[in-house]
Amino acid sequence: AQKITQTQPGMFVQEKEAVTLDCTYDTSDPSYGLFWYKQPSSGEMIFLIYQGSYDQQNATEGRYSLNFQKARKSANLVISASQLGDSAMYFCAMREGVDIGGGTSYGKLTFGQGTILTVHP
Amino acid sequence: GAVVSQHPSRVICKSGTSVKIECRSLDFQATTMFWYRQFPKKSLMLMATSNEGSKATYEQGVEKDKFLINHASLTLSTLTVTSAHPEDSSFYICSAGTGSYNSPLHFGNGTRLTVT
At residue A51, does pLDDT exceed 80? Predict the structure, then answer.
């Protein structure tokens, strides 16, 4: 079963407007982290924002905010005042705990399918 | 912030040859590094988890004899694509971070491999 789901293959937004990129997740682990990354056409992965499963408030980082709805298992990324440089592929990702025999290890990131965002002038 | 350096950024090789990709954590020690593969406009698929001083853990369906991973030190992991074939052409990207769920993984800039 898909652990991270991004249902929007592509999104378009006008410059200076806000856009929401959807992400839902599936886990039974009470401790997990949710992350958003931006990947421009050059390929590098740029970390944008993080939300922890125990965080009471939605995370914000500059123009990025995360709309965290734990009961619905969604972690949508909101980009305010879009800029042309925001055009890129955006990935939602999750880190979960893994029982390593007497302890918990948090390892890999599991990624969603990605959303290609295009900002129009 | 944490920096991960990956080298080379691009490589073209002939079928049947081997290619080594290096991943270094420059300002922190990484007991664990992760290797991902990405096809154009697709998601990142985890290939293996590289643990310093021990054998790598490969994801299901990834050939461990084709994709050799060595994590010789706390700052260096290498991925060797052995006997490369055109279907191995892809974007390979490594990442590293701490073992905490509230810590992001930091990524290298990736290696675009083309096998002719």
Answer: yes
